[in-house]
Q: What sequence folds into this?
């Protein structure tokens, strides 16, 4: 259990019962891209070893991180989305969710984390800079997908890479 005095939180692997709650959470967290409820059900069931959900005492989903270990780079975890509901912001929950995943035995061989971030998403930039500092690892970024590649209606996405780091540091 994690959280603060006002809101105890529980972090665990997601399951099918969390799918709809994750979908609702993502919808409440702009500027995140909202995928289908089906996509979040797949993440909660087929990718549960590389995702994490946080719930409050009532079982409400208040945080979620999704990602996967890259097939072509088994030492790299690609973090797809991180979301923290308004009531749980400012508690360090995003960091705790990421570190809960990174400390799992299934990720013992992972020494790099990648994600994409739009240039103006200051909260995400702050999170990943803090993670890099906490893990004593370099952070590098470069443009990954241009606005044109994203259909002209989406900000460009920068690929951010943290690592190498050692899991035992977490």
A:
């Amino acid at each position: 259990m994690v959280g603060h005095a006002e809101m105890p939180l529980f972090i665990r692997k997601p399951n099918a019962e969390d799918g709809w709650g994750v979908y609702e959470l993502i919808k409440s967290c702009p500027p995140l891209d909202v995928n289908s409820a089906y996509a979040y059900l797949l993440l909660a069931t087929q990718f549960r070893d590389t995702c994490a959900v946080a719930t409050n005492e009532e079982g409400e989903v208040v945080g979620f991180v999704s990602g996967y270990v890259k097939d072509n780079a088994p030492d790299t975890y690609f973090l797809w989305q991180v979301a923290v509901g308004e009531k749980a912001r400012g508690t360090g929950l995003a960091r705790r969710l990421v570190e809960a995943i990174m400390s799992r035995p299934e990720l013992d061989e992972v020494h790099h984390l990648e994600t994409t971030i739009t240039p103006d998403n200051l909260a995400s930039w702050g999170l990943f800079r803090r993670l890099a500092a906490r893990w004593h690892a370099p952070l590098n970024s470069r443009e990954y997908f241009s606005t044109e590649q994203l259909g002209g209606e989406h900000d460009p996405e920068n690929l951010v890479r943290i690592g190498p780091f050692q899991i035992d540091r977490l």
The first strand starts at residue 2 and ends at 4.
